Amino acid sequence: MNPEMELKTLMLRKPRLTLAVAESLTCGHVQARIGAVSGASEYFLGGVTAYSLEQKVRLLGVNRAHARRVNCVSQRVAVEMAQGACTLFGADLAVATTGYAEPSRADGVKAPMAWWALCHRKRGGKAVIISGEVEMPGAKRVDAQERVAREVLNALVAYLREVRG
Fold first, then answer.
1. Segments in 61-127 forming alpha helices (H)
2. What is the pTM assigned to this prediction?
3. Do strands 127-135 and 113-121 pair parallel, antiparallel, or not at all (unpaired)?
4. pLDDT averaged over the chain?
5. Phi-psi sector, 117: left (phi>0), alpha (psi -120 to 50), beta
6. Is residue 119 pLDDT above 80, yes or no?
7. Per-residue model confidence (pLDDT) at position 12
8. In whole angstroms, what separates CA 132 from the centre of its chain?
């Protein structure tokens, strides 16, 4: 079973869970993969692509000072984006991506890389946060975006397998 179909199965187990997405680096690739599965509307609430610092702060509650210092690319920014997507959409779970889809000489980035995060808001107000980094030396822009989208969805499915049994 592909990750998107397995995601649907896991999300719809009782009790049903809802999902939101916040993307920067992947620019809609995560949402497109989720939405490509028939029945995604039963659990997928929506997503936002926030490329700029201003939109990450305004829509997702990312800490402006920290994000400015790291050009919006850090584990903390990814986590804040995932938490913000949970809040914005009222979702049980959210995933987020941020990073560089290609080298950036101005920012000292030699190869594409990304941070992703997953936030699961549990009953009682507690949240589980998981995050990871993906390094992609030599990857082209779209390949990097697709790889990060695949990685974050695989991590989400692995997490749901663990918590859903």
1. 64-69, 75-89
2. 0.96
3. antiparallel
4. 96
5. beta
6. yes
7. 94
8. 10
